[in-house]
Amino acid sequence: MTDSEHQMEAPSAPEPRRASRRSFFTGALGTGLAAATLAGRAVAQTTPTPSPSPSPSPSPSPTGTPTPGLSDVDILNFALNLEYLQANYYAYAVGNGALAAADISGTGAAGAASGGRAVSFGTETVIQAYAREIAADSLAQVRFLRGQLPSSAVIAQPAIDLSVGANSAFSVAARRAGIIAGATDTFDPYASVDNFLIGAFLFKDVAVTAYKGAAPLIFNKTFLEAAAGIMATHAYHAATIRTLLYRRGQSNAVLIPWTTGIAAARDALDGAPAEDLIRGIAPNDDQGVAKVSTPDGDRANIVPTNSNGITFSRTPTQVLNIVYLNAAAVTSGGFFPSGVNGTAKTSAASS
């Protein structure tokens, strides 16, 4: 391994700078969590929602008031479900196995993350280093979110399907995307580096849209800043994965069409909301990494943006449509065979 490759590997313990940032947010969020949630509920009960100021059409939804039916605790727990899913995928892929018991305990129906295994990266040491960094960041995010919640409110990890059978979540998703066809065909994200990147593409793009969609729902500004930081981390990861797939797709002809198929499948699952160019919402806003032809020549599509250069959002119910792999209103399925834990657990019937 070269010196540059060695430097890219994630350290076994968080860097001091990362640790100091986490300590700052832990103190700030831990102190204000219960008070902010109670205050938010009080505002919701006593203060009418102000009329939004005039703005260009379409206008963003007003922010600054708590989300009806969802507290900040509910939103953090919803995010924690997604972090459990991703952290286990990357932990398995880099050979660490499932998350430890201390990182997954809590309230609700506890379950195991089953079916994952290590990827053989072979000579792809640079991509292995990327994967190790993402695995370390994902575990840190699980621990961070758990640390901000009152101990009595932390949700347990639900059952997570990371297996590769014909009816596994990965295979069902791949079938929807046109990657495999037959009812008995399987998609194994651990079988090769390219397959691993496709699995990562499936998760990371959804994580970015989930955190962006949750931003207007968060009442406490310190929570909002922390969530924005997590979203930025996911966006860095997603851009790395999308760049790798675009580059490797120049020699492996199936990769770019696979990303297009996954994007189309996710669009079909999360419905056809009315277009809002300011918020980054459209009936068909998901995008693979296929090149885009312009009058100035072809360009890459590493960042899935609209005409304003804004990436798109998903609501919690739309995110559940995708991870449950179901366009209907259901409470379980796909990667969460028994459903997620917490208050936000039902997907929406796609319109």
Describe this structure in words.
Residues 1-24, 39-70 are annotated as: Disordered. InterPro entries: Pigment-catalase-like, TAT_signal. It comes from Sphingomonas adhaesiva. This is Ferritin-like domain-containing protein. It contains nine helices and four strands. It has 351 residues and is an all-alpha fold. Strands 1-2 form a two-stranded parallel ribbon. It is globular and about 55 Å long.
List the helices and strands and how they pair.
Elements lengths: L2 H6 L7 H31 L25 H22 L19 E2 L10 H24 L11 E2 L7 H8 L16 H22 L6 H28 L6 H15 L22 E3 L2 E3 L16 H8 L28
Parallel strand pairs: 1-2
Antiparallel strand pairs: 3-4
Helix content: 40-55%
- Assess the beta-strand content as a share of residues: under 5%
The number of domains is 1
Q: How far from one another are the termini? A: 51 Å
- Main sheet specs: 2 strands, parallel
- Taken from the alpha-carbon principal axes, the silhouette is globular
The overall strand count is 4
Task: Quote the average pLDDT.
Answer: 84
**Which residues sit in consecutive blocks of at least 5 with pLDDT less than 50?**
1-67
> Mind telling me the C-alpha Rg?
20 Å
Structural class: mainly alpha
In spatial order, strands of the major sheet run 1-2
Alpha plus pi helix count = 9
Quaternary assembly:
single chain
